[in-house]
Amino acid sequence: MSPPVPTPRPTPPKQRRGKTPPAVTAPPGWQPPKGYVAVPVRRRRRWPWVLLLTVACCCGVPLWWAQPLSAQYPARASLPDQLGSLRLRQDERSQAAAEELKSQVRQSHLLAEDTFAGIYTTTDGKRVTLFGGTGFRLSPESDAEAELDRLADRYALKPSVPVETGVRGRYERCAVGRADGDTVVVCTSVDHGSLATGVFTRLSLDDSGRLLNDLREQVVIPKQS
User: Fold this and answer.
1) What are 144-165's pLDDT values in tens digits?
2) 81-87: long-range contacts (C-beta < 8 A, 24 or more apart)?
3) Where is pLDDT greater, at 214 or 30?
4) What b/e sequence results for 176-210 when a residue is b if at least 16 CB atoms lie within 10 Å of its CB, and e otherwise?
5) Rounded distance, CA 84 to CA 65, Å?
6) Which pLDDT tens digit goes with each residue over 192-216?
């Protein structure tokens, strides 16, 4: 004989949520007793947080924006006799070419405070022509593009590409061109205090961009340093 089948438990009815009771108000015509003073509910003040946020926006953002300017301007430039494996050429022809470059930089950048130019070579035949100027620059990114536009005809430059510098406020661009029948890479690096341009032979575009970034660290020095 099989055991009896258990009777299923009845499902409890669903409880309906009652409507939210209306707010309690005083009956019509009710007057508070004599001497009764209503106590207002004190709200949490938020103005200190608003004040701190306002101060951070008003002071922090301008300081963040101005930091590269103060770190990069003013600056001075000096060409050493040797930059790593590069040696500055001191012969009369090279010095005359460097003076011509300085004159061209001065004519193209009327607000430049100082100009520099030099021709370096290595023992294995590589050649680096370095020139530029110091002075305040408000928009270094557009100045870098304008500098390569200025040199486009002289070096038959192809479209330029940006190069990462790793320095906030410094912008660099490079382009491949030709000079005296040889392939060259022309790179320019501009920050808020200086402009440095290099013409490189027998180097790739990436290597030229990195080398210019290294050279300008040794040639252009902020006066705060």
Assistant:
1) 999 999 999 999 999 999 999 9
2) 83/120, 83/215, 83/218, 83/219, 84/214, 85/122, 85/123, 86/120, 86/121, 86/122, 86/126, 86/128, 86/215, 87/120, 87/121, 87/122
3) 214
4) bbeeeeeebbbbbbbbbbbbbbbbbbbbebeebbb
5) 34
6) 999 999 999 999 999 999 999 999 9
